[in-house]
């Protein structure tokens, strides 16, 4: 399988990631296509439930005309190739950062983004009117309302940074705390500490990005130290001078969250 870049950005000319090659035999190609299909199903299940997937569960819920032994063998190959991992020996598998990046890359190349954005227009209609967006650039309350709506739609921590005023607003922290089910006070403290000094971290993101493009940072590749189990989706909007970011667990809804930020960029342009 072709490995994707560590930072994924929306690119209208992106090519679909392929796992076969003209130099491979038909049998080898079929095997790799089957392996990719299994990986795609594992990632989809993980994004839906946020839990490890065992091979026995996979066999029971997906009819791929493969024996349990074949599924276990494919899981082993995907683990060997660093697309799946086990938290401990007897646990099920979860996708690695590399597998999630591959999934996102292929989603962006699939043509599904426009359809998802169209589906979001009605639910965000009031926030996306030109007059309302202009108001959000001038009024603190309107800007906070926009960030609140993004948090509600994404069920994630959402950051809005107005670079002209230096105002930073965040909403939706309760969503990720509920999703992570954190009971350890030390872990909760570590997360809260990692969210300090956000303006400096956001400025570094701005410096590294092209304007009006959505960037996705998975796991250890995100810019927020101490949040390696999180992913971040960001966009730098020079007119108005905003940075918007959505942070959540690595099993966040990447398709919807990418569509949310791209939709706002499209409306502003």
Task: Report on the architecture of this protein.
The chain has helices at residues 26-49, 55-61, 68-80, 97-108, 113-121, 125-128, 130-138, 140-154, 173-180, 185-194, 198-208, 254-268; strands at 7-9, 84-86, 93-95, 157-162, 167-171, 214-218, 230-237, 242-249. The chain is 51% helix and 15% strand. It folds into two domains: 13-96, Arc Repressor Mutant, subunit A (Orthogonal Bundle); 113-268, 2-Layer Sandwich (Beta-Lactamase). Residues 1-5 and 11-23 have low confidence and may be disordered. The protein has twelve helices and eight strands. The chain is of the alpha+beta class and 269 residues long.
- How many beta-strand elements? 8
Quick check: average pLDDT? 82
CATH superfamily of the largest domain: GAF domain
User: DSSP strand (E) fraction?
Assistant: 15-25%
Task: Give the ordered list of helices and strands.
Answer: EHHHEEHHHHHEEHHHEEEH
Name of the CATH architecture of the largest domain: 2-Layer Sandwich
Low-confidence stretches: 1-5, 11-23
CATH class category label of the largest domain:
Alpha Beta
- Lateral strand order in the biggest sheet: 1-6-7-8-4-5
Largest sheet: 6 strands, antiparallel
- Percent of residues in helices: 40-55%
User: What separation lies between the terminal Cα atoms?
Assistant: 36 Å
| Mass-distribution shape | globular
Tell me the Rg in angstroms: 20 Å
Quickly count the domains: 2
Q: Please, how many helices?
A: 12
